[in-house]
Design a protein that fits this description.
The structure is a homodimer. The first copy, chain A, is α+β, with helices and mostly antiparallel strands. Helix content of chain A is about 40%, strand content about 20%. A four-stranded antiparallel sheet of chain A has the order 1-2-4-3, covered by helices on one side. The first copy, chain A, starts with 7 loop residues before the first helix and ends with a helix. The interface between A and B is medium-sized, with 16 and 16 residues. Strand 3 of chain A pairs antiparallel with strand 3 of chain B.
Chain lengths: ~100, ~100
Amino acid sequence: MASKKLSDIEIQQQLANLPDWTLRDGKLYRAIRFVNFSAAFSFMTQVALIAEKADHHPEWFNVYNRLEIWLTTHDADGISAKDIALAQAIDALLA
Amino acid sequence: MASKKLSDIEIQQQLANLPDWTLRDGKLYRAIRFVNFSAAFSFMTQVALIAEKADHHPEWFNVYNRLEIWLTTHDADGISAKDIALAQAIDALLA
């Protein structure tokens, strides 16, 4: 299913409800720090299962207890509702 | 246990036996492409268990089926035997 790119206004509206996310390089971005690698990778595993189920995957960088996540939709050449949904799911895991 | 930084000559000697690894930004670097995200993340999980057991962790970036890995030893401010061992373990998983 193709995803529609959100407009700048739509993205700003969504970001109002995602206070831990910012725009970076045109992607939704969040950095998270955990207590150690085990906690970070355990979290990544939970996100991986959600991402695989949704067939929508993050770009992410990890070193030890630090994780950086960028969300974008390549098909849409921008941020789509899929990215908002994944950001919300990631926040819910951390709540 | 503190790790000793390898000399440039020692690193070059080790790289001779690690043909899929290069030096990038002073770190051991390897990029790997898998068939899909599931394969990539399954591999990351195997590496995570090895890394946690060795208490020596990679820097890595993943998007979908692509994985990039950088190995360095922060304590040693360079590449140590721990990085060589982790690179060898990663290669063994892929063999």
